[in-house]
Amino acid sequence: MTDAKLLIDDVLRPAVQLERHLPDPPPVVWKALTERERLRSWFPCDVAVSGGRWEPGAAITFTFPPEVADMTLTGQVLEVDEPNLLVFTWGEETLRFELSPDDGGTRLVLIDKLPADAAARNAAGWDICLDLLAGLAADPDAWKPRFDAYAAEFEPAIGPQAGPPAEYKGNRSDLADAAPLLQRWMRCLAGRRQGR
Q1: How far apart are the first and last CA of the chain?
Q2: Alpha-carbon span 34 to 154, nearest angstrom
């Protein structure tokens, strides 16, 4: 777990910021952020971009697995600067992924601009998702203690924190084995890029 930072430019629409160092270079990490099959291994839902191309204005549909939540969100691609920056809306939130070279790998910064009462919930959730992206094993019981810690930290600044959405049914069981597969796939891509 890394500590999420609370960014408060607007108390009604704060943001949480999380960072990870990933061992692969930005072009490889970019594929994990933009290829539908790769997204399925770490993102909390299926991501379908209209026309299959990440370009400003493209519509996005986010469909959660039925065993997790009866929920589909929509969004729109706002900014694309491959392999450095990807910004899109996710329901009523805006997600910003910044990638930069860092010590032979990538420094990933995720900024989630969201409703104030969702800050702790999403910080805990993104912690787990980014752990998966980094190739760490998924712990199905990790969300609650992370949520509790973030709620205690964030509530004094932005008010009470909401738990899971009413539609939430449980964790994605398929993610338990996803981290090692994603890590192998990213290493394979990095090897191809380096001519191995």
Answers
A1: 32
A2: 30
Architecture of the CATH domain 5-44+82-193 = 2-Layer Sandwich (3.30)
Alpha-carbon distance values, 97 to 34, 69, 70, 173 (Å)? 11, 24, 26, 25
pLDDT tens, residue by residue, 77-92: 999 999 999 999 999 9
Q: Give the global pTM.
A: 0.85
Structure tokens at 171: 């964790």
Residue 158: strand, helix, or coil: helix
Residue 177 has pLDDT above 80, yes or no: no
Mean pLDDT of 23-45: 96
Tell me: pLDDT of 196 over 60. no
What is the spatial distance between Cα 90 and Cα 30, in angstroms, rounded to a whole number? 18
Residue 57 CA neighbour count, 13 Å, CB half = 0
Structural domain boundaries of the chain? 5-44+82-193
